[in-house]
Amino acid sequence: MVLANAVKRDEKVRPLLQVENLTKVFGGGRNEVVAVDDISFAIAPGEIVSLLGESGSGKTTTARMILRLSRPTKGRILYEGKDINEMKGIDYWRRAQTIFQDPFSSFNSFYSVHSFLGKAFRLADNDFSEDERRALMEKAMEDVGLNASELLFKRPHELSGGQRQRLMIARALLIGPELLVADEPTSMIDASSRVGILNMLMDLSRKHGMTIMFITHDIGLAYYTSDRLLIMNEGRIVEEGSAEEVVERPTNAYTKRLLADIPTLRRKWDT
Ligand SMILES: Nc1ncnc2c1ncn2[C@@H]1O[C@H](COP(=O)(O)OP(=O)(O)O)[C@@H](O)[C@H]1O
Ligand SMILES: [Mg+2]
Fold first, then answer.
1. Half-sphere exposure at residue 60, Cβ-oriented, CA atoms within 13 angstroms
2. Which domains does the chain have, with CATH numbers?
3. 251 alpha carbon to ligand 2 midpoint, in Å?
4. pLDDT score recorded for residue 12
C-alpha cells in the first residue's frame, strides 16, 4: 500500500507525456500557416484529458506530432522523460496508439477486416498462434460492439463509417497501449451508440490505467469523459484546468464563447 502510494506520488513528479513549446508551421512566405503555436502541457499516467477547440484550431496537427507522424517545427515531446523523436518508432507505437477521425483514409480497400486487425500483431511482443490471434481479434471486435463472425472477412467498402470507426478502436485495443490519442473518435458513430463507446474507453482507462487524450470539438464529449480540459484556439492553449473548473468557471473569453451552449450539455448525455 505504502509502496503503491509512493509510486503514485512519483508518477505525479514525472508525467507520462510532456509537450514543451511545441510549434508547427506549414508552408512559407505568404502561404505560411502557424498551425500550432508554442504550446506546452503535461499529461499524468492514467489521466483522461481532452484537447478541445473548433475546427482549424490545430488539434489534429498536435495529435500527429504526439503520435510521431509529423515532426515539430520547434519544441519537443517527452514520453516518460524521453524525446519521442529520438525513440525507435516501434517502441513508441507499442505504447502510444491512435484512433483517427477519418477512418476511410486508414483502410486500403484491398484488405479485409482480418488482415487490417492482424497488422496490430506486428507491434506485439508475443508470438501468437493463428488461433490465438483469431480469438483476440474476435474478442476486440465484440468489445466494441461488432459482430465478428459476420464482419471478420469483410472489406472496408462493405462496412459503414461507424463500423470502420469501431474497428479502429478495436485495433487500438488489441495493441493495448498506455496512451491512446483519440482524434474525434465518435464522429462517425451514431448518437445512440456514442455514449456506449465512450464509456467503454473510460472503463479501459479505469481498469488498465490507460491514459487517454481525446481530441475533439465536442464540448459534451470532453466534459463527460475528461479529468482535465485543454482549450485550443488558433494554435494556442488558451485555458487549462479540471473539467469542472473550466466548464463552471471559465476565465478565458474564447472558452466562455465556446461554452455558450453549456445548458445543452447535461441534457445531451442524459438520454
Ligand atoms: N499538411 C498541412 N499543410 C498545410 N496546412 C495544414 C496542414 N495540416 C493542417 N493545416 C492547417 O493547420 C491549421 C490547423 O489544422 P488542424 O490541425 O487540422 O485543425 P483541427 O484538427 O483543430 O481542425 C488549419 O489552418 C489547417 O488548414
Ligand atoms: Mg482535426
1. 11
2. 44-69+92-270 (3.40.50.300)
3. 25
4. 54
Predicted local distance difference test score (pLDDT) of residue 103 = 64
Which atom of ligand 1 lies at the shortest distance from residue 215's CA?
Answer: 21
The pLDDT averaged over each successive group of 10 residues in the chain (271 residues) is 42 83 96 97 97 96 97 98 96 90 70 91 83 94 92 92 86 90 84 83 88 93 94 98 93 91 54 45
Say what the pLDDT of residue 268 is: 47
φ, ψ of residue 166 to 5 degrees: the values are -60, -35
Compute, in angstroms, the gap from residue 25 CA to the centroid of ligand 2: 16
Distance (Å) from CA 70 to ligand 2 centroid: 14
Q: Crossing angle, helix 191-208 and helix 161-175, to 10 degrees?
A: 0
Tell me what pLDDT residue 96 has. Answer: 95
Q: Going by CA atoms, what residue is nearest to atom 16 of ligand 1?
A: 58
Q: What is the pTM of this model?
A: 0.87
With a 6 Å cutoff on the Cβ, whether 95 touches ligand 1 is no
Cα 174 to averaged position of ligand 2 atoms, centre (Å): 24
Best residue among 39, 52, 61 to mutate for probing ligand 1's pocket (most ligand atoms within 8 Å of CB) is 61
Cβ of 59 below 6 Å from ligand 1: yes
Please tell me if the CB atom of residue 146 comes closer than 6 angstroms to any atom of ligand 1. Answer: no
